[in-house]
Amino acid sequence: MKPIEIGAFLPIAQNGFALSSNSNPYPPSFAELRDISRLSEEVGLDYIFSMSKWRGFGGATHYWDASFESFSLMAALAASTERVDLYATINPLLFHPAAFAKMAATIDHASNGRLGINLITGATIDEYAQMGILPENYDQQRYRYATEWIEVVKRLWSEAAVDHYGEFFRLEACVSEPKPLRKPFPKLVCAASSEEGLRFTATHADMSFISSRDIDTIKRRSRQGKALAGELGKSIKTAVPLFLVLGETQADADAYQEFLIEGADVDALRNMGQAQTAQSRKGAQEHGAQRLADSRQIYGGLPVVGPAERIAEVISDLAEDGDVDSFLLLFADFRQGLQMFGDRVMPLLGRSVG
User: CA angle, 24 as apex, 12 and 313 as ends, to 5°?
Assistant: First the structure.
């Protein structure tokens, strides 16, 4: 199998990634996230990743109602880890590019060049509307805004001083020192499903995250993103989030999945579905409609249910037939799931532990 990267999607928000009362509740805890991050290193993963979430979806589990801020968390985890890359999530709305450029360079130095950045434009706009920071007509111009923002950031990371007079930002002989250690820039990833979003990702990012519950759709989008990048004269990697329900046998894994589904937080599922269908973006609307139609869709990412052999089979198929380069792992219980993944799945993938 071709070389792949494997990461852990840290449960930084209430109840993690399963909308179920039978999942680990994961109230925000730095000690817990530190231990999960260190375990990720011990079992041989390549990176850890944290999302940005400013408003949850309620329900019996208070799903994502409480969460840590991504960049602050990853800065702290830089001092608690030694090897894994650290991907933090940012929406350009939250920080002026000059402030962000220095923040990112600081964390990159603190981690000895391990910082990666996940750039988002906002899956649910009400997270940012509640702050009163949305520019007029932002939903229609979000990628113009993000394009100008990241172009300014990259200039600040590479030029001695920046003059910029754009649609959204104005800088005059603006300096940002020191520059990041990682050259030419910290790794940049982006998740998008619209044509505009895919073009933005192919143009500006190093890796595209693909989220779908359908394996054939993942393969098609992976090839599509790479082809688009090729048309622009560059290459790009693709990554897929996987929600793993591991068991000793298929029957064990199936039973564990049913246990999680029995505890489905139907109110949180409804609230998330309604929030997504209210967005203007087609991808968000589709995800929301699926959740409103099926109360079993309690997972984030592509659910893969089975023993180690089944997990390895799906990863290998996506890597080879879909040309996927990276896999971001989610679990209902991260300590148990990561340990089992390291012990059982990593050897099947030809990866060593630690």
Answer: 85
Distant-in-sequence, close-in-space partners of 183: CB < 8 Å, separation ≥ 6: none
Helix runs in 322-354, H state only:
334-340, 346-348
For the chain, the structural domain boundaries read 5-348
Indicate the Cα dihedral angle 230, 236, 242, 246, nearest 10°.
110
Separation between Cα atoms, residue 69 and residue 89, nearest integer Å: 9
Q: How far is CA 278 from each of CA 70, 123, 272, 275, 289, rounded to the nearest angstrom?
A: 25, 11, 10, 5, 10
What's 60's DSSP letter?
A: T
Between 250 and 300, the more confident residue is: 250
The CA distance from 205 to 198, in Å, is 10
pLDDT in tens, 107-123: 999 999 999 999 999 87
Superfamily of domain 5-348: Luciferase-like domain (3.20.20.30)
